[in-house]
Amino acid sequence: MRTKQAFIAGVAILAAATMTSAVPGGGTVSGKVTYEGTPAKQKPIDMSKEPSCAKQYATPPPTETVVTGPNNALENVVVYISAGAPDEPPPSQAAVLAQKGCRYLPHVLAFQVNQELKITNEDQTSHNIHPLAKINREWNKSQPPGTPPISDKYDKMEFIPVKCNVHPWMHGTFAVMKNSHYSITGADGGFTLPDLPPGKYTVTAFHESYGDQTQEVSIAGSETKSVNFVFKAKPY
Amino acid sequence: MGKLFAIVLVIIALASAYPIVTHMYVMPEDVSTHGHQIDEQLSDTMAEAGISFLLAQFVLAIFVWKFAERKDGGKLKNFPGGAKIMVAGAFILVGTEILALGVFGQRAWANVYFTPPRPDALQIQAQAGQFAFYFRYPGADGKFGAIYPDKIDEGNQNYFGLDPANDIESRDDIVSAELVIPVNREIHLLMHAKDVGHSFYVRELRIQQDFVPGLDLSVHFTATKIGRYEIVCTQLCGLGHYNMKAYLNVMAQDDFEKWVKQKASEL
Amino acid sequence: MEEASDQQAHVHPPPEGFLRKYVFSLDHKVIGKQYYALGLLAVCIGMALSWLMRFHLVWPTTRIPGLELLSKAGAPGGIITPEYYLSLLTMHGTLMVFFVLTNAPFAAFGNYFLPIQIGAEDMAFPRFNMMSFWTTLVAFLVLILAFIIPDGPPISGWTSYAPLSAVGKDAGPGMGWGMNLWAISIAIFCIGSLLGALNFIATTLDLRAKGMTLMRMPICTWAWFITSCIALLAFAVLLPACILLLLDRAAGTSFFIPSGLVVSDRLQAHSGGSPLLWQHLFWFFGHPEVYIAILPSMGIVSHILINSMRKPLLSARVIIYSMMSIGFLSWMVWGHHMFVSGMNPFSSLLFSFPTLTITIPATIMTLIWLGSLYGANIRINAASLFALGFISMFVSGGVSGFFLAQPSIDIVLHATYFVVGHFHMVMGVASLFGVFAGTYFWFSKMTGRMMNQTLGQLHFWLTFIGTYCIFMPFHYLGLVGNVRRYSSFVDDFMGPLMPLHKFITIAALGTGAAQLIFIFNLIYSRYKGVPAPENPWNGTTLEWSIPSPPPWNNFGGKHPIIYHDPYQYDVKGLKGDYIMQDSPEPSAG
User: Fold this and answer.
1) Is the CB of residue B114 less than 8 Å away from at least one CB of chain C?
2) Which of C56, C71, C79 to mutate to test the interface with A (most CBs of A within 10 A)?
3) C588 and B76 in contact (C-beta within 8 Å)?
4) At what angle do helices C82-94 and C28-58 cross, to 10 degrees?
5) What pLDDT, in 10s, does the model give residues C542-578?
6) Confidence at A15, pLDDT banded by 50, 70, 90
7) ipTM of this complex > 0.90?
8) Which class in CATH covers the domain with range C30-257+273-579?
9) If DSSP codes are grouped into helix, strand and coil, which group holds residue A188?
10) The pTM is what?
11) To which CATH superfamily is domain B122-266 assigned?
12) C73 touches chain A (CB under 8 A)
């Protein structure tokens, strides 16, 4: 499951990289996000209420609010340029959130302001998508099986918790970004923000449970600057 | 046309009664210690109501058959005894029915609601929220941790709003999406609503009780048969109401203990 | 009371102009027709909604063409979402209970015939009367507005239980402005109904013609009078309840919301309220409301039965006293809606007894109707068929009440289709049968033309058989434990019940389609019907003593004098086997 997610995230990054107005051959910020301390256990999700989903798993899938990798790597962290880069128009491709096996794929979906968001239901049950937006417009819609994808756009930058009212364990995050310079950490906690023109940038790392951290970085030419983030993990 | 009315009415009455008389549609088999009383009460009422229903429809049919569009030109007459006999009849007939069903029938209700749970009943907390049930067992310490609504974090499986960081009693609380209980042991279910009104309904247990936000309610019951039964919500609670359900898993005592151990090890 | 007719010294001129005559009319007859038209519109919408629901329940993945136009979010690709199903359900219930069952048998026929039957020129307060209709119309429009706003109609059912209805948009789609509109609409409706009820009471007490003692009033006048007394008290409770609900929603009060509720991951900033308070207030109104719906139909049916049987009931007084005791008892039974709601279990017992006791007056009435048929010569026509159908339906819906009145049985049947079957039969169908009977009976008086009998009787047979096919099986579903208000049946448990659900849906679509015959008949007979004489049914009450349709001031400026009890049938009169109430000829008895 996790590899598939990493794959999707990877595709998203690739897609983002090829579509932006960024400078090819510019500078790069890369690094690793880790945690220190004891993170909460990933607990198995009991889906017995929804048999059509439960039967898709040999062992119950784990919770994804904190996902860790080897060497204290922290997954699902959105690393992005929060200041220093201009706002960019959205790419033409849609960002896709799939609901499959009563989970959100991917758990964290990043896309740009005004980029088309498509939500599909691949399950045999009716889902409900309720992005709990505070800055953007909040909505709450059901998607019965067999209905067309739900399309939407967000016009302001925001990290939006997403939940399914019908299946309480389904939680995810929308990261609405102002530009194309963002990356979501995979199992190794690594990220890369390429194609940055020379300049001063603020790099921010956001994790849905642990909040955000920022660092300043200056890029000159086509150099690669290394930036690492360390989050404090709590067992509960 | 009056005769047609009578025929149609008799057919309707018989067709309506047929599925009842042949027990075509009956509730699933009762697996509780108290349910048989409710079932008996239901079938007694069915007998009395069914007879009243058929009698009234037949009398209506017969009278319309006989007295509609009469061609005999005979004099109109009144029912012998007039209104008095009707009033007296209604008082006697229905009065007895009320006494029989109303008074004696309350025993079934009393047995469910007026007897307190046994002191050794197994306490389990049920929480209803949009749109799932979760169940909490007190764990090894025998105590439920306190609930802090602001700590609820469903993505992280903290459905009840426990605070294990500060509240030691909550650390060993077992939370389950299934209501797992041992067979033949009384269960005292403490009911807690997280958001809006819900209800706890298990057909096989003959139990239905609303969850009311802000009100501490409880039910107690004993399941007598091992098996897996459906718990459904019967109080309109929002868009996912139709899909708000959980399972009641009645196990042998040994299996139940194993399950508790296994759940505790996952903590 | 008898000097009431002398006081009408001043004579109003007839109204001039289209607006004054037909729109903002003060004439109780026009207002009665307006209520009827509103009820007809509401019943068409309500029935269409029930079609959509029934269709969705058995064919959940079949697209309904065009439905997307009504609501894109509610029916993406023509497939109804769970929340939209609940929206349909809420609107169906609200429209039917308030705008059909309260309006048609009570406000529509009551407005038209109550003043005539007591020999009055108009209602006591004609302006109030106009106001109550227009207020009701505003309530209707506000409710319908919920279909158009982006939030959509509310999803909390016609009972709008708090806190679901009180916490605002976090509770789900439709619970933002949709729910506000519902509460505002019902509050406005309450005002309209209160005005109407006051007017009915004042009219009945003050404007009776000379000789029209209370016991000489026709049974349906009595029914409307008793109903207006109930309505005056019931809507006076619902109105503040709706206001409190609106305050909880908009002003941050906590009448119905306790502390610590987390809805859609958000901790609600309320504390100290009680969800049960809403249920008590609502059902304190809600149960009498059932009798507001059924009592007028009981009166209308009695009125028509007597005329069709050509002989009086065994005792009209007993019927009137039974209606009074039902009205009285209706105030102490509301708790039977709340047996498993967490109310003190002792109070369940207390509520159970008066509920069972209501069976006594109801049985007395049934026995009187049945016993009166004995030895009669029943004329069969569309009106009398519906009246006879009413008795059958009232019995069928009534016996199931016997189950639900017992708390122990309610444990298993509460919130199942058994309840749905019960109240649809006794409050919905029975009451509508009264309206149908009344329509076929009084259409001639209201329009001056006879209603087509062939179409009318065809309509009866299809409706009578059809409604049994729909609502009897509901009871069976309930006996198995099929829960109501589910937008789809996702359990294996439901598999064996689906054929029955399909049967019900097909019956509902068919019976619904049969109502088109009725609507066609209404329109056709209005323009092409045979012109009606003054007294086509050889009736005895005052409405048959004036032309069809009546002149604007009913009795042409004359003041009728009443000589007889209302139902002098089976006698040797000058015109036949009956003597009119205002005929000075001596009564044979």
Assistant:
1) yes
2) C79
3) no
4) 150
5) 999 999 999 988 998 889 999 999 999 999 888 888 9
6) very low
7) yes
8) mainly alpha
9) coil
10) 0.93
11) Cupredoxins -  blue copper proteins (2.60.40.420)
12) yes
